[in-house]
Amino acid sequence: MTVTPMMAQFLEIKSGYRDALLFYRMGDFYEMFFEDAVNASEALDIALTKRGKHDGEDIPMCGVPVHSAEGYLLTLIRKGFRVAVCEQLESPAEAKKRGSKSVVKRDVVRLVTPGTLTEESLLEARRHNFLAAFAEVRDAQALAWVDISTGAFHVMPLSPLRLGPELARLAPSELIVSESSEPGLRETAEDFGIALTGLARSAFDSTGGEQRLCALFGVSTLDAWANFSRAEVSAMGAVLQYLDITQKGQLPLLRPPRREAEARTVQIDAATRRNLELTQALSGGRAGSLLSVLDRTVTAGGARLLERRLSSPSRDLDTIHMRLDAAGYFADDNALRQKTRDQLRRVPDLDRALSRLSLDRGGPRDLAAMRNGLTQAQHLRQDLQTGDLPSLQQAAIADFDGHGALIDLLDTALIAEPPLLARDGGFIAAGLDEDLDEARQLRDEGRGVIARMQKEYVSDTGISSLKIKHNNVLGYFIETPSTHADKMLSAPLSETFIHRQTTASQVRFTTVELSEMETKILNAGSRALEIEKRLFEELRQAVLSSAGPVARTAAALAETDTAAALAELAVAENWIRPRVDDSRCFEITGGRHPVVEHALRQQSGEPFIANDCALSAGGDDAQIWLLTGPNMAGKSTFLRQNALIAILAQMGSFVPAADAHIGLISQLFSRVGASDDLARGRSTFMVEMVETAAILNQADDRALVILDEIGRGTATYDGLSIAWATLEHLHDVNKSRALFATHYHEMTALAGKLTGVENATVAVKEWEGEVIFLHEVRKGAADRSYGVQVAQLAGLPPAVIARARVVLDALEKGEREGGVTQKTLIDDLPLFAATPPPPPAPQKTSELEKTLEDIHPDELTPREALDLLYKLKEAARS
Predict the structure, then answer these.
(1) Which protein family is it in (predicted)?
(2) Residues within the annotated binding site for ATP?
(3) The CATH number of 579-791 is which of 3.40.50.300, 1.20.272.10, 3.30.470.10, 3.40.50.2020?
(4) pTM here?
(5) H-type alpha helices, 312-363
């Protein structure tokens, strides 16, 4: 069967986007056909219908309304689809000028992918949406990443071993790689939930990349920013090439690229980030993470900056101290802090508004965001310019000013609360443009204008019965009774009034003025909208001409919000400023776990038991605490809280402790908890060993290492030997500061052998056969693990607990008396099924208990109660 022209157009456009769903614009709907329709209807749970036939088969079809397309786009992107948006490039009326059967011109205007979202409804306001590219040029590698919704653009050289940790830090939505590298990196991308996109090798050509970068930023060389390597230029060039493909040549407003160096931030691998739940809880989602407790920011830009700081703690002392100074400045002045935060609450997301405007996807509300945000920046400058400001705030307020002309322009041009879309109109304030005011008046008050003209004509002619009327044939016309025909048709009125029609009782006329007014009234609505669109474009260009200063103001606002938020947190939670220096000290007094403390307060109101930690190493020696004690006592919490305190200190935050002195940490490693990786055939023990190997192979003498229960996933003696050797390696080779928790009490002997190892234990108390966890860390070693008691608390059946105690006693006795073998254990202990535990003996009721049961307190007089109390006391003595 012959393909219709419209379907032929669809198939031609679709041939260029085989790996994407094609949103084909048909009036007020985006429609999909063939396999696209089948896939989209299933993913979106919408009806699948049909339209026409192709090769004798029905053509599957589904569609979504244009006005609600963003929600459907988000669903499709989250389910792994890419969407090519195909728009009508002309109206049906324009198409018909070429012939009655001409098809409206259409083409793809944008390819929507996970890393190229800009719409407010498709993005999380408080998180970045990074698009990254990994490039390899001979023996060099680099990673570039960009957030087109904010304009952030970064690059860094790195080794292939660092790719995983950096992807864990940045959490990009999409990763661009060379097609030749795509198979080898697919598993890595899947591990982090990143969409992987392969590009032709030509996209990674460093020469072409440099040309694209220079053209974008209007420079002849990149030397002004850094001496980028070929690998770095290759990665950045690939990002720009992909943006050119997806945005169809409409490149976003990007800031000049900034190089990041590994040596400037604390290196944290993916396993450590996961174990410490920095930005995401193990259960998934933000709730329960450190970020969820830390985030008191009141702006979207501040929230994104806070997450960046938390994900990338600094190793630069000057940077750390400046950030601590800024937080301390706001912590010391409650009134100023609250006033600043109140001002910041009214600051919109300038970065994303600016990005949408640069891509021509913005609307009147983005212009209003510019006006409101820049106005608030001016108010903040006035509030903060008094007093002795720390250096970060001095730099910030310098960027708050300089937008007076732009603010005045936007304030004069826009109404207070404009609509979302420019096509809705009504956002330009009255009085800005005379033509717009006239068009609006005609649109809204057409009848009034005609009535005034009628009044004027009555006055000019002296004919009180003259009327201006309207019909679909003549349009607007002047009508008088036929008795006045001679007067109207004679000079001087005939020079103004033009005869149009005569009826039996009426004569109809028009005037040049009335004809022009009719045209204006009929076109007033569309003319007003066209004028507003023109003015919107002028305002958009005015904003874009100040894009650099606006972006700096947005950054300064985010900096101020982050500092004030950290100060608010410190005051509310009683956190203190840490001392951070270049030593190898690690001394925490009264340290607390911020997330656990917050959860306790929310759930039960119980206080968190604070603990000290001292890993102050002298010279080149390691300093390791070997921590023993039972499960459930808080060992893992203690390990994690010290790692989190280190991160908080180096990101520039106050910390949950009574005092903290931290020498700079270069790397942070955490091996806590148990997990498997069955998809790769890795058992829990294999995962544990892989993570431990990474620590031992990479940790340096500035690292902080957190290890919990190394070796527990295998046989006792195998596990003990691995844990023993691991601790010796950390001490002798890595020379790291470390907290090493273990159930192997035999290892406590290492404290007497290794000079940098000290024993510590989590205290417990036994009372009437039960164990009470005190959650206190003390110097010394535990001699028991209390595993059976913990099992009892967990609710194991009493018979199992009783049997476990019997087996434990036998094992401990055998060890004391010279060892126990499997055979002697079996021979000495009857089978469980053959020796059920005896039923509990009935308890005898004492005379005292009998007396208490017979007492009815409400029936006693005070005298009788006192006598009874003496009687009970005597009975207790006997």
Answers:
(1) Belongs to the DNA mismatch repair MutS family.
(2) 629-636
(3) 3.40.50.300
(4) 0.83
(5) 317-331, 334-344, 350-358
